[in-house]
Amino acid sequence: MKISTKGRYALRLMLDLAINNTGEYIPIKRIAERQEISEKYLEQIITQISRAGFVRSVRGSQGGYQLANPPEAYTVGMILRLMEGELSPVACLDEPGSCDRADRCVTVDIWRQIKDAVENVVDNITLADLVKSYHEKGNCEYFI
Amino acid sequence: MKISTKGRYALRLMLDLAINNTGEYIPIKRIAERQEISEKYLEQIITQISRAGFVRSVRGSQGGYQLANPPEAYTVGMILRLMEGELSPVACLDEPGSCDRADRCVTVDIWRQIKDAVENVVDNITLADLVKSYHEKGNCEYFI
DNA sequence: AGCTAATCATATCGAAATGATATGATTTAA
DNA sequence: TTAAATCATATCATTTCGATATGATTAGCT
User: Fold this and answer.
1) Is residue B54 a part of any domain in this protein?
2) Each residue's pLDDT tens digit in chain B (144 positions)?
C-alpha cells in the first residue's frame, strides 16, 4: 500500500513550482537542489508532467518550467494519478471483467471503500492549500 | 497503492474459514480448490496467520485449520496488517526520524490523512460482516 | 558565430519485491 | 503401515523500483 517515489517526488516538484510561482521559468536543477532529488530522475518525472500539460516549458539557456495554471487548479489527486495511475488498492476496480468472481465477491466492496476514502482525501487538497500550510510552518522560499 | 496478493489471499482464506466455521478442521487443499489459489502459496500464507495465533491447526491425516476466535473477532485491518505491515502510503509515518525533512514537510499531513482514511475502513469491517454480505449475495458454502 | 545552459529522448542497470514453485521433513488418523 | 495433512526452507522467474548514462536538440548570451 505504498505510494512510489515518482508520485511523491512529483508532488514535491509541483509544490516547489507553486511556492516559486513568480512567473519566471525555473530549471530542474534548482528544484533538484532544493528538494535533494536526483536531477536526472526529476527530468523523467517532469517530462510526464509536461506531456500532461500541467507545466509550461522553455528550452535552451535561461529556460525551465512553470505551472501552466494557478496552484488552486491542481489537486493532489491529479498529480498522484498522473504518476501512479488509478488510486485503487486492486486492479479489478479499474478493469471491469478482469475477474470472473466479481459478481459473488464480497471483498471488492472493501477495496471500493478504500479507494473512495483515499480519493476523498487527495481530491480535496490543492497545491494552494499546501503552499499555505508551507508558509504557516514558518518556511520560506529559500528553505524547502 | 496496491494491496499484494498475499494480503488479498489471506483475507479470502480467513473468510473461507469463517464461512465454513463448523468446528471441523479444514485442510488447505479444500480452501485452495474453492478459492482457486495455489495450494502451496496458501500454505505459506496460512503459516504466517497461524504463527500470529489467528487460527488453530491440527497436523496429520484429517488435520487442517480453523479460526481460533469467532468471525466477529477479526477485522479486515488485522488480517491485512499481518501480511502487508502498516497500511501507510509512506514509510516515514511508521519510522520516526527516518526523514530529516519531517519538521518542515507539508506532504506528510496528506499521507497521514490517507492512512487514517484507510484504517477507518478496514478496522470497522469484521469477518462476520463479510460472512453476512456473502450470504446476502445469495452465495452458499459450496460456492465461493 | 560559438559557447553554454537548459530541455528532450531513450537505453540501461542493479536491487528489491512479487508471486509463486519445488523439495522434503514431520505428524497423525485410519 | 500408509496416506493425508501441516511445517519448513530453498529456489526461481518476472516485474517493478529507483535511478544513472548517454546523447540530441534548442535557444539565450556574449
Assistant:
1) yes
2) 999 999 999 999 999 999 999 999 999 999 999 999 999 999 999 999 999 999 999 999 999 999 999 999 999 999 999 999 999 999 999 988 888 888 889 999 999 999 999 999 999 999 999 999 999 987 765 444
Asked if A5 has any chain B CB less than 8 Å from its own CB, the reply is no
Say which nucleotide is closest to residue B63, CA to C1' distance.
D5
A70 falls within a domain: yes
User: Does residue A120 fall inside a structural domain?
Assistant: no
What own/partner pairs with CB < 8 Å and gap ≥ 24 does B128-135 have?
B128/B18, B128/B70, B128/B71, B128/B72, B130/A106, B130/A107, B130/B15, B130/B18, B130/B71, B130/B76, B131/B15, B131/B18, B131/B19, B131/B71, B133/A106, B133/A109, B134/A106, B134/B15, B134/B19
Query: Which residues have Cβ atoms closer than 7 angstroms to strand C?
Result: A 27-29, 40, 43-44, 46-47, 50-51, 57-65; B 4-6, 38, 40-41, 43-44, 58-63
